[in-house]
Design brief:
- Belongs to the class-III pyridoxal-phosphate-dependent aminotransferase family.
- GO terms for molecular function: adenosylmethionine-8-amino-7-oxononanoate transaminase activity; pyridoxal phosphate binding.
- InterPro entries: Aminotrans_3, Aminotrans_3_PPA_site, PyrdxlP-dep_Trfase, PyrdxlP-dep_Trfase_major, PyrdxlP-dep_Trfase_small.
- With 456 residues, the chain is an alpha/beta fold.
- It has 2 domains: 140 residues, Aspartate Aminotransferase, domain 1 (Alpha-Beta Complex); 276 residues, Type I PLP-dependent aspartate aminotransferase-like (Major domain) (Aspartate Aminotransferase, domain 2, 3-Layer(aba) Sandwich), CATH 3.40.640.10.
- It has 16 helices and 17 strands.
- The strands form 4 sheets. It has a 7-stranded mixed beta sheet with strand order 4-10-9-8-7-5-6, with helices on both faces. A 4-stranded mixed beta sheet has the order 1-2-3-15.
- It is globular.
- The model has no long low-confidence stretch (mean pLDDT 97).
- The structure holds pyridoxal-5'-phosphate.
- The site of pyridoxal-5'-phosphate has 15 residues, from helix 6.
Length: 456
């Protein structure tokens, strides 16, 4: 694209596109930072013809890499055969049925039914409605509150933005809705007392959850929602024994567990599901992102027999299930998911996420350990993170208004690397496609280190 047409495109964007999660006044004066026009593997090309290595797989989602011909063929074939038909009133199409069966087979817990949506946010809304329906059918109409965690990310719809434990998603929007509560996340760096063992820290968090449930009244608390690894809130890995301790509290008070696997599901942590990695026993599982590697929007709620049996019993009370999206069980999305899952299986990409991830963690240690502004380097599988502070001794955060991590990610672009700042934790994250080579990982990590040197 010529410099002139690239500039014209950026101006069109500046004037017309309402960008999500964007500082609108700054955008209004600067226009887009990058306008990506093509992608291949882990490489993006912008409208000026400059290339970038994408260390974030978009938004933690393009797990098989960009623009794979097998995906284009599968989508073209489906669009040429049956571009759309709905699933309302018992109607349906072939591929979503096959995909639901496949997801049930591969799920980390027994699954009775799969409900399809379009995004992680709407899937978490569906989960909340299932939880409320479940307790209405059981004759427990007051048992409706949902407990989430600070720094948890569960989406942006009216309900799921409230579940999200990041205040910038609440302020100005009258959120969260009144039935939502938050507890502390298992982030040792800031939440544990100095010298605490994992077991002590886990016991404190489980006790806090129990105290909250008792204070609210167990007959008012319906569910607890948690990402296995908290992604957007700072790449927070739960300490050993965390979910076992939480699960014991939930079981004691008849509180359901919703596992939000939107980032972790389908191999991101080097195993199929985060649920398995961290010993969770969820009643409901939310998946999105990696289910299609973001070639087409798709999400799913995996419903275990415990919830499904009650939903079925509710049919006599409510005469049907009054919920669904025009695009629920969209055949194009199902075609994308089936081919994406074939690629992950055939190319052993989950195993690859583990081995390339191990290389990435080594390189992150080599480049960032010991830096006076680096508080912690953490991650699991093919997710890595570097958290910044003003000083490590004593541990003192930067003033949040400084946006230190954001400065590093912005500067990384000059070195041809796209990372992502997670402002809640002053952290930069790495979550590249599973197909990324070790050489590309080296370039991603070294480029980000050069950006840090430029900023300090
Ligand atoms: N849940 C988790 C764990 C996520 O990371 C996200 C998005 O990043 C969502 C839910 C919301 O998904 P979506 O943006 O598709 O609505």
């Amino acid at each position: 694209m010529s410099q002139q047409s690239s500039a014209a495109l950026k101006e069109m964007d500046r004037q017309h596109l309402f960008h999500p999660f964007t500082t609108l006044k700054t955008f209004d004066s600067t226009g887009p930072a990058l306008t990506i026009v093509s992608g291949s593997g882990s490489t993006l090309t912008d409208s000026n013809g400059d290339t970038y290595l994408d260390a974030m797989a978009g938004l933690w989602c393009v797990n098989i890499g960009y623009s794979r011909p097998e995906m284009a063929e599968a989508l073209a074939k489906q669009a040429n055969t049956l571009s759309y038909y709905h699933a309302f009133s018992g109607m349906g199409t072939d591929l979503p049925a096959r995909l639901a069966a496949r997801l049930s087979d591969m799920a980390p817990v027994p699954v009775s039914r799969v409900f399809f949506g379009n995004s992680g946010s709407d899937a978490n809304d569906t989960q909340a409605k299932l939880v409320w329906y479940y307790n209405n059918v059981r004759g427990l109409p007051n048992k409706k509150k949902i407990i989430s965690r600070q720094r948890g990310y569960h989406g942006v719809t009216v309900l799921s933005a409230g579940l999200t434990g990041l205040t910038n998603l609440h302020e100005g929007f009258d959120l969260p809705l009144p039935m939502i509560r938050h507890v502390r996340p298992p982030h040792r760096l800031w939440e544990a007392e100095p010298g605490m063992t994992d077991a002590e820290f886990v016991a404190v968090l489980a006790n806090e959850l129990e105290a909250l449930i008792l204070a609210e009244g167990p007959d008012t608390v319906a569910a607890f929602i948690a990402e296995p690894m908290q992604a957007a809130g700072g790449v927070i890995i739960p300490p050993a024994g965390y979910f076992e301790a939480i699960q014991a509290v939930l079981d004691k008070y008849d509180v359901l567990l919703i596992a939000d696997e939107v980032v972790c599901g389908f191999g991101r942590l080097g195993v199929d599901f985060g649920t398995t990695a961290f010993g969770m026993k969820p009643d409901l599982i939310t998946v999105a992102k990696g289910i299609t590697s973001a070639y087409v929007p798709l999400s799913a709620c995996l419903v275990t027999p415990k919830v499904w049996d009650v939903v079925m019993a509710g049919q006599d009370m409510y005469g049907g299930f009054g919920h669904g999206y025009t695009y629920s069980a969209h055949p194009l999305a199902a075609a994308a998911a089936m081919t994406n899952l074939d690629i992950i299986e055939n190319e052993k990409l989950t195993e690859r996420a583990a081995t390339v991830g191990a290389h990435m963690h080594r390189r992150l240690q080599e480049e960032f350990a010991g830096h006076p502004n680096v508080a912690e380097i953490r991650g699991q599988g093919l997710v890595g993170a570097v958290e910044f502070v003003r000083s490590t001794s004593p541990m003192t955060a930067f003033d949040p208004s400084m946006g230190f991590a954001a400065k590093v990610t912005k500067r990384s672009l000059a070195h041809g690397i796209v990372t992502r700042a997670l402002p809640a934790a002053d952290t930069i994250s790495f979550s590249p496609p599973f197909t990324t080579t070790e050489d590309e990982i080296d370039a991603m990590v070294a480029g980000t280190r050069r950006a840090l040197d430029d900023v300090v």
